[in-house]
Amino acid sequence: MATTAADAPTTPAAPAPVVGRFAPSPSGRMHLGNVFSCLCAWLSVRSQGGSIVLRIEDLDDRCKRPELAAQLIDDLAWLGLEWDEGPYYQHDRLDLYEDALHQLQDAGLTYPCFCTRAELHTASAPHASDGTPIYRGACRGLSAEEVARRSILRAPATRLRVPDVDDLAGDVIEFVDRTYGAQCEALATECGDFLVRRSDGVFAYQLAVVVDDAAMGVTEIVRGCDLLGSTTRQIYLQHLLGLPTPRYAHIPLLMSPDGRRLSKRDCDLDLGELRTRFGTPEALLGWLAGQTGIAPDTTPRTAEQLVEHFSWDVIRAHRENITVTVE
User: Fold this and answer.
1) Do the domain assignments include residue 188?
2) Which residues 6+ apart lie within 8 Å of 247 measured at CB?
3) What CATH number did the domain enclosing 309 receive?
4) Per-residue pLDDT tens for 131-147?
């Protein structure tokens, strides 16, 4: 008897390729914490046979510095953290963010907000897990006449409505982080309506990264745990815009001996100093891998040699923030 196509055995579909990304902001020289984040993203993707996209996040005025963007690219190349696509620059992608914002506006999900930074940061204001004030909706119900009156005095920002607290199906966002496990946030009480465009016209980080990650086919996002609190907002935006949700993996922060997290602003262990001190990328990466538990010791190793040592089980076992000291 002949076999029809419907009767023929099916071959399981091959898993979708893993696509990760580097998304540095050229607001200063990379520091050791940035290197650790990029290294983990690169090792995770390469250990799964995937590819890396490089995106320069330069929407903010302090990041519009081509010389620093060029330095970031040079530093990544020196480290041996090659990428497969890009670099893309957010300043070239404004039309995509505008289209996404219009989609939200057409659905009646946004409104103009005239609150000042000082008003939002009053001492009594509750704050979300990432330190941003939880917005209580002061401008949510303004009439068209009041919006027009206030717009004469100052340009408004644009906020995205989150579901009401009694909308359990829409308000609660859940996901499983690859390092920190199950996460859950009630948007209405733990986040509040959030910005998608600032009053100076700059698109907000949350909107831009969601649009870019989807457009670039990113399936895995590895970044510092200081951004763990942003994830539910980004998943909510993905749902509203009909975009896929990547897998998220947050990693511990590197801390200075005095308890501060490393920062570009304070020039903490920047890559210029580190390149001089260690001399070779192998020496720096090997030392960093040993300090953070990725490798069993600080033997100099290339990024490629570290792939065999990388494991998310190891990252989970060392998920508390890590104090580093370079002698």
Assistant:
1) no
2) 178, 219, 220, 221
3) 3.40.50.620
4) 678 888 899 999 999 99
